[in-house]
């Protein structure tokens, strides 16, 4: 029996919507009774030297258990385990607590432990930190000038770079048309529903940490590296998690300090950050400045493409993967003869940037899809037709790109045709022309993007156990932050073993129960974690078949499992059957189990096409998304309800980035929208109903034939909306508008184009 294609309601929702989830702040266990509460003292300056810290007044304040600063952390083995970039002998190292210098508003400089939850704020204000403010490097363009250095020993703000010396303009020599444009992929906040949260206790032997994370096992390894404690002496538990989006991969500096404080003080401690803290201190996303150069023939054929990436790392280069991934995915879905890429990673006086839903792939898609539209406009050809003439042919798969990656499978033209047909593209263009001819104030824009992304790769673990009652337990290394793993894994086990979903328990996020795992990110769950569950369940089935054969007096090859009833019988004789419980009882075993690690030696490449229809008020610049039609092909769909939920969430985040979400700073590095009253997080009322078209192209990379779906909507939607808004006002002389395409930005572009047109006349 195959579970694929079955629409099943999420089994976890009953608990989450009735009794509620158990998040870190909800954990009530004996070990945490009487826990102290953690409050961080954070820098009010983006760039400053710390000339002194006096904690005496705070330590004397009633209810204060302890106050710690960087001087208390000097015996730890490393400044911080985040990746450190080396340049000319200097290190861009991130300390757990800033001791000599602060490099962004919100950087932690001290931690206060109090016996009451709300006493920490008052006590924290009594920590007297003396700062000598320095000029701030705000934005990558300013940081590249190296006028203001974040790390003086490095002698530069450039933390990493690659391949820019290989650019060769000769590849553009034969092009009829060459277009260049700087494209901003601005900084955004992750805004999970649950902010960061950690609780920890040290009993003298073991450190137990509860943490809101996407992977407990990575948390443990990071704590081992940071604190110098053996992994056997650390237990990490990840309960329910209210959203991750990449920013909760592993454990970050603030949570490490909380764990250290428990170890240091021998006191149980708890910390839940406020939303204001979250918007300045949690890792943020995107923040790329991309320069594209695209050339080709007037018949629509693209012959050369260059993508030059400047990655704003924020105050510390926490990851080196974002810009390289963007470069790897630079050509997108197109068979372009010449592709050149290079990048620079630069530190700035802003919150550090790390992985955020898509992590480098949305940025690559936004660059190439905007470049294709600019090229189409320059040669006067419909953007859909330009795409069609350059897409990788379906017969070319597996396809090796000019940047060296193997696309496993795809049919990009079919995806494009499907969204064009579903949207009735000719009718939309006719309506657009009619509105323009009639001088309508509200103009129509149609934007297209065709994308491919890279997901998965690597391995994951799973253990499936069937007990004497015929019930199953799944221990999975793939944690959940709302994706529906309990439902998906139960579906896979039921399909293999015939055990009803309501008799299957899924366990994740506990290093004592699951010591080896990778976790959830990069849309890897079903293709890796699901494949591991599938293989473990199949192994359990094969073991049970041998037991059943002995009990039924038949050859192993003649015994079958009826998955519709969960019973074993001899082929052709269903009347003489045994349940799982009976098999285990007669075999005199308490349980049958299989422990599996599934490895994939290469990633998969989901793909799709998005078409967005927008209406722009030319007098106010206000944009309304009228329709959004998508194909997001991630191979066979296990549960349409889960896949659609992932698509909906991704599309919403992508549209939000295109239209209104943006983290902003002033010239001194002060955040300008550090509350949800000022930061434009997306809401349901901002969006239309999405039109989701089905497409399933399997891969040969894993036994389920599936690819990742969690980030697809984010990748395709942003450039589709950007292209749509630019298309809406193109007849007014507007060639390009950077995202987010706020009303003021759109209105300013229209006005500027009008003024320039008047000057030319």
Characterise the protein shown here:
- α9 runs parallel beside α17 (about 710-730), α11 (about 410-425) crosses α12 and α13 (about 485-495) packs parallel to α14 (about 525-550).
- The longest helix has 28 residues, at about 525-550.
- The protein is built from 18 helices and 30 strands.
- The chain is globular.
- The termini are far apart.
- The protein is α+β, with helices and mostly antiparallel strands and about 750 residues long.
- The strands form eight sheets. The protein has a seven-stranded mixed beta sheet. It has a five-stranded mixed beta sheet with strand order 9-17-16-15-10. The chain has a four-stranded mixed beta sheet with strand order 20-28-29-30, with helices on both faces.
Q: Gyration radius, to the nearest Å?
A: 28 Å
Percent of sequence in beta strands: 25-35%
Uncertain residue segments:
none
**Which class of secondary structure composition applies to the elements?**
alpha+beta
Q: Give the helix tally.
A: 18
Bin the helical content. 25-40%
Tertiary shape:
globular
Strands in their spatial order, largest beta sheet:
3-7-1-14-11-12-13
Mean pLDDT: 95
Biggest beta-sheet profile: 7 strands, mixed
List the helices and strands and how they pair.
Blueprint: H1 13-17, E1 36-42, E2 48-54, H2 56-60, E3 64-69, E4 86-87, E5 90-91, E6 101-102, E7 108-114, H3 120-124, E8 128-133, H4 140-144, E9 158-162, E10 177-188, E11 197-202, E12 207-211, H5 216-227, E13 234-237, H6 253-265, E14 269-272, H7 275-281, E15 285-296, E16 302-314, H8 322-328, E17 338-347, H9 361-379, H10 383-390, E18 399-400, E19 406-407, H11 412-423, H12 425-437, E20 442-452, E21 458-467, E22 472-476, H13 485-497, E23 504-508, H14 525-552, E24 559-562, E25 567-570, E26 573-579, H15 580-586, E27 591-600, E28 607-617, E29 623-633, H16 640-659, E30 691-693, H17 712-728, H18 743-760
Parallel strand pairs: 1-14, 12-13, 16-17, 22-23, 29-30
Antiparallel strand pairs: 1-7, 2-6, 2-8, 3-7, 4-5, 9-17, 10-15, 11-12, 11-14, 15-16, 18-19, 20-28, 21-22, 21-27, 24-25, 25-26, 28-29
Helix pairs in contact: 8-9, 9-17, 11-12, 13-14, 14-15, 16-17
């Amino acid at each position: 029996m195959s579970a694929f294609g079955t629409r099943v309601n999420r089994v976890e929702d009953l608990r989450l919507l009735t009794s509620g989830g158990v998040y870190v702040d909800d954990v009530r266990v004996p070990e945490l009774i009487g826990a102290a509460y953690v409050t961080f003292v954070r820098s009010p300056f983006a760039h400053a030297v710390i000339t002194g810290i006096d904690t005496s007044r705070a330590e004397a304040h009633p209810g204060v258990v302890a106050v710690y600063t960087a001087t208390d952390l000097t015996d730890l083995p490393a400044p911080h385990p985040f990746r450190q970039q080396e340049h000319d002998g200097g290190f861009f190292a991130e300390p757990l607590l800033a001791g000599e210098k602060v490099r962004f508003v919100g950087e932690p400089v001290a931690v206060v432990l109090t016996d009451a939850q709300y006493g920490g704020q008052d006590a924290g204000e009594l920590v007297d930190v003396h700062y000598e403010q320095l000029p701030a490097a705000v934005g990558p363009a300013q940081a590249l000038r190296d006028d203001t250095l974040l790390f003086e020993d490095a002698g530069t703000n450039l933390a990493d770079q690659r391949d820019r010396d290989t650019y060769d303009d000769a590849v553009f020599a034969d092009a009829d048309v060459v277009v260049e444009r700087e494209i901003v992929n601005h900084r955004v906040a992750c805004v999970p529903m649950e902010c960061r949260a950690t609780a920890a206790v040290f009993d003298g032997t073991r450190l137990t940490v509860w943490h809101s994370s996407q992977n407990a096992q990575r948390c443990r390894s990071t704590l081992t590296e940071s604190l110098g404690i053996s992994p056997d002496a650390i237990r990490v538990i990840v309960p329910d998690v209210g959203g991750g989006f990449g920013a909760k991969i592993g454990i970050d500096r603030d949570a490490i300090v909380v764990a250290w404080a428990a170890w240091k003080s021998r006191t149980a401690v708890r910390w839940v950050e406020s939303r204001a803290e979250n918007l300045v201190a949690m890792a943020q996303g995107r923040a790329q400045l991309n320069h594209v150069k695209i050339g080709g023939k007037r018949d629509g054929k693209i012959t050369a493409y260059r993508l030059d990436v400047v990655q704003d790392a924020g105050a510390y280069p926490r990851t080196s993967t974002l810009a390289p991934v963007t470069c790897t995915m630079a050509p997108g879905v197109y068979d372009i003869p010449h592709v050149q890429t290079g990048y620079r990673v630069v530190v700035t006086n802003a919150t550090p940037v790390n992985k955020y839903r898509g992590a480098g792939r949305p940025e690559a898609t936004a660059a190439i899809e905007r470049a294709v539209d600019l090229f189409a406009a320059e040669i006067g050809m419909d953007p859909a037709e330009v795409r069609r003439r350059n897409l990788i042919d379906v017969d070319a798969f597996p396809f090796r790109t000019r940047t060296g990656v193997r696309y496993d499978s795809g049919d990009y033209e079919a995806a494009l045709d499907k969204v064009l047909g579903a949207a009735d593209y000719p009718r939309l263009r006719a309506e657009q022309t009619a509105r323009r001819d009639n001088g309508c104030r509200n103009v129509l824009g149609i934007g297209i993007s065709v994308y491919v992304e890279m997901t998965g790769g690597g391995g994951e673990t799973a253990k499936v156990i069937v007990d004497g009652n015929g019930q199953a337990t799944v221990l999975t290394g793939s944690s959940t932050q709302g994706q529906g793993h309990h439902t998906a894994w139960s579906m896979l086990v039921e399909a293999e073993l015939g055990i009803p979903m309501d008799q299957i328990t899924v366990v994740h996020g506990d290093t004592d129960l699951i010591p080896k795992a990778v976790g959830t990110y990069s849309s890897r769950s079903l293709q890796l974690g699901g494949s591991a569950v599938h293989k473990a369940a199949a192994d359990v089935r094969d073991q049970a078949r041998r037991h059943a054969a002995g009990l039924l007096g038949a050859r192993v090859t003649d015994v079958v499992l009826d998955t519709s009833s969960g019973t074993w019988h001899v082929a052709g004789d269903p009347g003489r059957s045994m349940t799982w419980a009976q098999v285990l009882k007669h075999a005199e075993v308490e349980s049958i189990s299989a422990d599996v690690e599934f490895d994939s030696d290469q990633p998969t490449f989901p793909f799709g096409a998005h078409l967005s229809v927008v209406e722009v008020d030319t007098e106010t610049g206000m944009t309304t998304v009228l329709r959004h039609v998508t194909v997001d092909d991630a191979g066979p769909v296990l549960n349409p309800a889960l896949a659609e939920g992932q698509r909906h969430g991704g599309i919403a985040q992508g549209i939000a980035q295109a239209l209104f979400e943006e983290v902003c700073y002033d010239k001194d590095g002060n955040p300008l929208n550090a509350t949800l009253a000022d930061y434009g997080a997306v809401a349901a009322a901002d969006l239309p109903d999405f039109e989701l078209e089905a497409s399933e192209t399997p891969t040969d990379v894993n036994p389920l034939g599936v690819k990742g779906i969690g980030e697809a909507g984010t990748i395709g939607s942003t450039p589709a909306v950007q292209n749509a808004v630019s298309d809406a006002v193109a007849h007014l002389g507007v060639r390009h508008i950077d995202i987010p395409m706020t009303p003021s930005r759109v209105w300013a572009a229209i006005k500027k184009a009008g003024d320039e047109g008047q000057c030319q006349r």
